[in-house]
Amino acid sequence: MAAIANRRTIMNLFSRPTCIHSHRSRIVLAEKNINIDVSSITGPNLPEDLMDVNPYHSIPTLVDRDLVLYDSRVIIEYVDERFPHPPLMPVDPVMRARFRLALYQIENDWYKIAETFESSKEGKLTPKLKKMLRESILSSIDGFTFQSYFLSDDFSLVDCTVAPILWRLPLYGIDLGYNAGPIEEYMDLVFSRPSFTDSLTELEQEMRS
């Protein structure tokens, strides 16, 4: 995925093609229909222009004129506030707090396991980590059951964060089983969104090919 384009201001996202944090950033940018140049980084060597602007040399990094952001949560919240339509967070402060808590829990419980996979030389999760992730996702099934999207009838930053994990389940060797009907329906709904399909790199497409 070289670019997500329309008529708006061009920004640049430094992204890795299989990085889960990069993926959720790309989903949000695609959902907002923003004109964005995506610099795909493969291998250990980083481009000098990234190292010049990001003291942590981390990916994803978003460059918007003189502003440089290098944490995926900061990136997605900035993009949602900078381009408010369509909104990806509720207006009500109580609901916003609940959504932020959900983001924290997903990042702490699911993303940390995904990061272990991405850093693994063997390219796989241990049976213990697979069991932990599977059980954690299934324990959240109510969040997928009573609304169209996770915790809401509106697509949100939480969905942009959940979707990359669920997309990678076959790669992780995780089968949610026969009790996961609401989650399967949720995946069908989210994976068919144009913003999600537009966000996928070739390597991410191959995860479910």
Which properties best describe this structure?
Glutathione S-transferase Yfyf (Class Pi), Chain A, domain 2, about 210 residues, Glutathione-S-Trfase_C-like, Glutathione_S-Trfase_N, GST N-terminal domain-containing protein, 2 domains, globular, alpha+beta, disordered N terminus, Thioredoxin-like_sf, five-stranded mixed sheet, Glutaredoxin, about 10% strand
Description:
It holds the Pfam family GST_N_2. Residues 92-209 form the GST C-terminal domain. This is GST N-terminal domain-containing protein. InterPro entries: Glutathione-S-Trfase_C-like, Glutathione-S-Trfase_C_sf, Glutathione_S-Trfase, Glutathione_S-Trfase_N, GST_Omega/HSP26, Thioredoxin-like_sf. One of its GO terms (cellular component) is cytoplasm. Strand 4 (61-64) and strand 5 (67-69) form a beta hairpin. The protein has eleven helices and five strands; from the N terminus they run ββαβαββααααααααα. It has a five-stranded mixed beta sheet with strand order 1-3-2-4-5. The chain has helices spanning 20-31, 48-53, 72-82, 93-119, 127-139, 141-145, 157-167, 169-172, 181-191, 194-199, 202-205; strands spanning 3-4, 11-15, 36-40, 61-64, 67-69. The longest helix is centred in the middle third of the chain and has 27 residues, at 93-119. It has two domains: 3-87 and 200-204, Glutaredoxin (3-Layer(aba) Sandwich), CATH 3.40.30; 93-193, Glutathione S-transferase Yfyf (Class Pi), Chain A, domain 2 (Up-down Bundle), CATH 1.20.1050.10. It starts with a strand and ends with a helix. It has 209 residues and is α+β, with helices and mostly antiparallel strands. The protein is 53% helix and 9% strand. Helix 1 (20-31) packs parallel to helix 3 (72-82), helix 1 crosses helix 7 (157-167) and helix 4 runs parallel beside helix 7 (157-167).
